[in-house]
Amino acid sequence: MSEAFNALIQRCIDEADGAAAYQPPALAAALFYYRGGYRNLTRSLKYHRDFGAGRYASRLLGRRLAGSPLFADVDLVVPVPLHWRRLWSRGYNQAEVIAGEVAAALEVPMYRKLLVRRKRTRSQTGFDREGRLRNVRGSFAVRHGRRAAGVLARACHILLVDDVYTTGATLAACERALREAAPAKRPDRWGENRILRISAATLAYVGY
User: Fold this and answer.
1) Cys bridge to 103: 71, 110, 128, 148, which one at CB 3.0-4.6 A?
2) How far apart are the first and last CA of the chain?
3) Residues 6 or more apart in contact with residue 41 via CB below 8 angstroms
């Protein structure tokens, strides 16, 4: 999953401008493969308000991440946002439910309003890999405001959270929006200048 995510990020960079300053490789992890009965768990959370099972699985994901040295320096968790119309009709954002449990396990803040989905795209279901990339291109942006700018300026390792990693198109679009808005370097908790790392975690990974 990490290899797939980094390859997609690099492709987005190449298609945008062909060059970019060094950035630490992204980490990416999921709790399970999107196969068999596991599909029902993510679908139940997303479409049927099964918060009990969703939160239980999210806590398991959070514990796994908290127990890994790779994610030990995560200092901010950000859920992939829904467009406001979809959020209004559904009543909740399943990525935010997962992110809340992950942030609690990592003992770091979650900032649900850092990213905004500025275009209501069609559902990714039914698109192939190329179609998914086109569908979400330019769909996300960092929210305007002093608080969002301050949060982004202080974070050294942001963890993006969503329910399912299919092709990674949505997460890569979020990563690019954060990267474009973030300062190149920021001091960490020990005063050392660090380049922002942006990683991803999901409940499920489709895998191609």
Assistant:
1) 110
2) 10
3) 50, 53, 54, 57, 203, 204
Closest C-alpha among 207, 205, 202, 200 to residue 6 = 200
pLDDT in tens, 79-113: 999 988 888 888 999 999 999 999 999 999 999 99
Amino acid making up residue 123: S
φ, ψ of residue 81 to 5 degrees: the values are -80, 155
The predicted model scores a pTM of 0.89
Measured CA distances, 133 to 1, 56, 97, 206 (Å)? 17, 31, 25, 16
Q: Give CA–CA dist 116/40, Å, rounded.
A: 28
Q: How many CB atoms sit inside 10 A of residue 45's CB?
A: 24
CA distances from 43 to 13, 29, 39, 53, 148 (A): 32, 19, 6, 11, 31
What domains sit in the chain, N to C, each tagged with a CATH number? 2-205 (3.40.50)
